Amino acid sequence: MHIPDGFIGPGASAIAGVGAAGGFAVAVRQAKTYLTDRLVPLAALSAAFVFAAQMVNFPVLPGMSGHLIGGVLAAVLIGPSAGYLVMAIVLGVQALVFADGGLSALGLNIINLGGIAAVGGYWLYRLMLRFSNGSSRSVVIVAGLAAAVSVPLAAAGFAVEFALAGTTTSVSLTSVLWALVGTHMLIGIGEGIITAAVIGAVVRSRPDLVYGAPTFTGERTEDLVV
Amino acid sequence: MADGHVHALYLHGHSVLHRIAPQIKIVGAFLIVIGIVVTPREAFWAFGLYLLAMVVLAAIARIPPSFAARRMLIEVPFLLVALLLPILGGGQTVEVFGLSLSQAGLWDAWNILAKATLGLSVAVILGATTQVPEILVGLDGLKMPSIVTAIAGFMVRYVDVILSDWSRMRIAMASRAHDARWITQIGPIARTLGAIFVRTYERGERVYLAMRSRGYSGSMPASAIPATPVAQWILGGAVIASVWAIAAMAVLTT
Predict the structure, then answer these.
(1) Distance separating alpha carbons of residues B180 and B242, to the nearest angstrom
(2) A123 touches chain B (CB under 8 A)
(3) Nearest CB to B116: which of A4, A51, A201?
């Protein structure tokens, strides 16, 4: 579930759209430098996984459930620029085909989930990884922590956008929105656990594939093919 | 198997809207929604005309009202927020059915209700008349970088595989008495998703190697993008232009 049309004013939506498109162009250029043709299927699978996982609800409290954003998961697996691309593609297809998220709010949604959750979460991950011993165990834990923080961060992004450019003038929704950030902290715990589990499963079986891990090689299947 | 390639929002049909080139529909959907969003909320007549246009488009595409209504349910949580505004809002109040409601709150709620619903109906009509592969052809036609269409293409082919994998695993978990209610019970779900990811990646890698051995070199052979008839651009342009004319009138008169 993403921001629909009419929630944020047209001016701010347009600025966000231009910003998201600029980020998209930069991400395409950067991703091309390291996404070899054999990493494209991995990026695509991360996209498919994020797409599918956003449909899987997990329990938070009785009667309340959340779903994965997958931003940090994608960024740690395939790098921040490809992670941003993946989130933008997922959101674009959701808006165009599944009517999830407004078309005029696409830029805002990409900034929140691609910019804040995926890229922001990834830099948080790198920062925290610097204070660890770089073992695969710490990769998993740090990725989980960064993912957990990325969810309330993205929700806070929405809250700030709404406070700055929301279309409502009647009531200060600030308190409501900060409550939203609070509930997303709980959802973030689920996001963290699932991200850690998926990264853990990949690191255990294919440590060469995890972009954010020190074991990343990015070349192995290429050697195997030639 | 054929069902797996038709997404739930698509409605099989042969209307003009089904036949029109996907890149026109994608551009058109964006431009129409932008027109709707910039319309001042005081211009009721404009929103009435938009609604009429949506009903006409849906009728041309032969989308049954019940189908459209089911697809619109996705906005319900946001509408509930909108409905709270007149109750929580401050300032001048008006009596509606014996309830004292905030005037500004009513305006805010109307603004969100009208724009979100109309924007959603544009997307529903687009989804109902366009299959996912057509969207990808359309993005190609709009000169999206090949890396983006490659990722999007693989993605839409694997989503159904992952989802059916997940539903099989969920049945297996349920039959072993897994019924998670608290977040502390998330462990099995997390481990299952991890296993599905690795399994899907390895499947994708096998498919990729098979493609490589059959001559795949990083990009699909250029699929023939049929040239878009000028008449279709004119038709699409006319719809967009009329929406923007309404929006411009509404901006100028309020």
Answers:
(1) 52
(2) no
(3) A4
